[in-house]
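Need a sequence for this fold. Nothing fancy.
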């Protein structure tokens, strides 16, 4: 497969590098309170891909998994703290990769907003 058939990314310190095979099934902003706390932001933003296509190219030993609920696992770099992946226990064939860790930057559309009832009032509108 050509390099264009993958998403690429890394954590902040560069200790972990990954590639994930396309296609992206969907991209989303998740406003659940767990994503807000983990990301320290209004939302966690993810591209959902097949877990079989995710390859850790460097630094697999630096990945720490946190079981944030019975339904989800969150992977991050134990050195710099970068949030990398979210995995559903109900859908192990998929992995959600954080958009902010991708290089080059993700250029596809974000089609879904999840848990919008928790979307912060301080988040600016798109047209402002």
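Here you go.
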């Amino acid at each position: 497969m050509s390099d264009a058939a993958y998403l690429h990314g890394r954590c902040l310190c560069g200790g972990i590098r990954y590639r994930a095979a396309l296609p992206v099934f969907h991209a989303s902003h998740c406003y659940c309170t767990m994503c807000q706390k983990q990301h320290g932001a209004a939302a966690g933003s993810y591209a959902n891909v097949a877990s079989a296509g995710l390859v850790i190219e460097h630094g697999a030993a630096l990945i720490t998994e946190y079981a944030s609920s019975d339904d989800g696992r969150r992977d991050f770099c134990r050195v710099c703290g970068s949030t990398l992946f979210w995995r559903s226990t109900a859908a192990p064939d998929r992995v959600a990769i954080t958009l902010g860790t991708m290089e080059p930057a993700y250029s596809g559309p974000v089609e879904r907003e999840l848990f919008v009832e928790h979307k912060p009032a301080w988040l600016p509108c798109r047209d402002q």
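For context: The chain has one domain: 3-118.
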